[in-house]
Target: DNA-binding NtrC family response regulator
Amino acid sequence: MNPASILVVDDEAPFVRSLVYALKKEGLKPTGVNSCAAALEVLRGTEIDLALVDLRMPEVDGMETLARLKALAPDLPVIMISAHGDTRAAVQAVKAGAVDYLTKPFELDDLIHCIHQALDRRRMHKEIEYHRSRQLSTASLIGASPAMAALREAVERVAGSGTSRILIHGESGTGKALVARAIHAGSRRADQPFVEVNCAALPEQLIEAELFGAEKGAYTGAHQKRTGLVAVAEGGTLFLDEIGEVPLALQAKLLHFLEDGTYRPVGAATVHAGNVRVVAATNRDLAALVREGQFREDLYYRLNVISVAVPALRERAGDALVLAEHFAARYAHQEACAPITLTPETVALLQAHLWPGNVRELKNLIERLTILYPGEVISPAVLPQELRGAAVPPQPGTATGAGAAPVMPATIDHHMDQAERQMLLAALSRSSGHKGRAAETLGISRHALKRRLQRLGL
Ligand SMILES: Nc1ncnc2c1ncn2[C@@H]1O[C@H](COP(=O)(O)OP(=O)(O)OP(=O)(O)O)[C@@H](O)[C@H]1O
Model:
């Protein structure tokens, strides 16, 4: 661990010199200055862990110095040094934000103890903040399924790691953008910018300038110098959504940036360095795009060092219901009405639906239902047809997916399967996913329940 850097501010030069000497011998990294102005200059240019400030100084006194230091670095712990008999002023300083005070003359041991105590408190505070932000970061990812628990764990691990390239993949609407934000919020960059770029939404000729910036007149329409999003995200996270849509020409420049952290704005003569964590997301099969020659293999391997897979909603047992309830509460709040509630049959249909549009599809459905039937009990009759026809295997030659006509089962076996599926899911929903209890209510053994679930692919 690096030695803590201590700023000593006192107008008495010999006192500062002797303190600097003593602190160095204690393994700390002190810098001594004789005025408030000099202290502020040091603080602007150097990382300082703690400041020792004399209360009595000519021109700008200790109280004012404390205020100015805190204005520049609010988290900086400051210990005041007061002359004998100055206790009242020292107490005032503590009220104004100093962490402690010492009265001259003091023992070196007392000072060292005071410094370590303040540094420990700051370290602990930072740790708590860090863990709190990590918990907050995954709290937005709703879902009680094992798949979601694993995703939250992966997000926490990845967020806290030092890696600067992350690839998120998953079907459309699964929550990749939410995962990217959670990774940022849980990282040490959380208080720096999070900048989102939808690579599919930008015209090909503008993407480069948008990302890396451009000099005035670099291209037609560039009437003034343009700051790129890489520069805007400096110190933070750059989220490149739909990375699979980046044109091949720009892929080379992106690769260069990912490899050595430098880039050249369009039309610029000089190269810039950028410090951003790049989180990319895609719902395309990048490996297939590589095989088809649409995505650079080297860029694919650069991005794919750490990847996070976001599961489809149909792979998250029980989450459709948890999410439906979450969105019902949210839209009830938005519409200022009571939340909609779902009959067991509706729950069973939600659980059985394959959700090709994933969480986005479910969210839109609950919003629509809340607007149309505020506060009401939702029965299957008011569900869209694609949900009422859920879990029915498509017949050859018929359309499927959102908006398609419901597919009617051809045989009695299909009807039986459908009914069985709904009963099993309703029982599981009532038992909150507890298989033993669900089996009991159905009058079958746990083993039989598992076999039936497996047979129906649930
Ligand atoms: N686990 C979740 N908890 C709460 N809300 C979620 C969850 N997953 C997704 N959402 C919400 O669903 C919507 C779609 O999510 P998001 O935009 O992150 O999906 P995506 O995978 O990035 O989609 P696309 O590939 O189409 O860009 C958003 O409104 C998001 O807030």
In short: The longest strand covers residues 277-282. The pocket of adenosine-5'-triphosphate is lined by residues 141-143, 170, 172-178, 241, 283, 359-360, 363 (CB under 6 Å). Confidence is low (pLDDT under 50) at residues 390-410.
